[in-house]
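The instructor's notes for this session suggest beginning with a concrete chain rather than abstract definitions. Hand out the sequence below and ask the class to guess, before any prediction is shown, which regions might be ordered.
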Amino acid sequence: MSLEASITLSLGTLDLDVELIAPAGTVLAVLGPNGSGKTTILRAIAGLEPLQAGHVRVAQRVLDDPATATLVPPEQRRVALVHQDFVLFPHLSVLDNVAFGARSAGASKAASRRAAEPWLDRVGLASYTAARPAELSGGQAQRVALARALAAEPDVLLLDEPLASLDVATRAATRRDLRSHLDGYQGTTVLVTHDPLDVLMLADHVAILDQGRITQAGSLAEVTTHPRTRYVADLIGTNLLRGSADGATVRCDEAVVAVADYVAPGDTFLTIPPSAITLHLVRPEGSARNVWPVAITAIDPLGSRMRVHLDGPLPLVAEITPAAVAELGLQVDAHVWASAKATEITTYPA
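After discussion, reveal the predicted structure:
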């Protein structure tokens, strides 16, 4: 069931104006800073926040359209919303939690339970039918919440940071389970997340939201290879610069960056992988054309590497080994030189 949503509404200080399209059987990930309107989008699709303008359509069925005074109540939309805090009914058993959708739609207690049992088996909790939510771990509770949503056979599945409250190990296992279930889901899924691993493992398409507007959208490959905002660049861990190109150079504020290939004149983005930036205690000699004096503002561990944040003519992050940090004696507030080969720099039109 495809989803088409043109959402315009104001809520407090948020002014939301976005358009989203998600084909049936796909997962659309919506990312953005806190307060950008991600959860409000889900609430609008679910019918919990009426539109002021625009429309929400699922498989050409209009769910909300102020222009025609159409507003389908949430309980009639065949849209399921899964929150990050699970929101299970504490007084119901696990089985009755999963059966809730069918029961509220008018099915008998016995029939709704029969429909729920296969879903508990699918999420690996068939032996927990009589348990109460308080007896479950966080990962188990989230799987019950997912089973309850899918058991209702929704046309649209809305996931609001569904793994955010889980510990690292549980999150990884639950993410794998979620991927397995979504592979067989024929409806449309909209996933709100801050975790790039969620996007990499679960999403087919990505929309980046900032201050109520979509700043970039496309396939995962398109967005990650050509980031257009600092938020996306930080998310994928690369340096993003913007400047004015003229042939083999791009002027970015106070610095001129040499690139390997000709760039048509005009506004241009550049990306420089942090691993492509080399640090030196003295200005390097030789043929390197991209050399800048910088000051170290922070040094953060990242797995087996260290990310060194630099301030200077260009705001940069370098990624080097702990051994290199020790050998160079790097520390915060130290002044060093940064260099990058022109062949390591990617450019594309802004």
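Then share the key points. The chain has ten helices and 19 strands. The chain has a mean pLDDT of 91.
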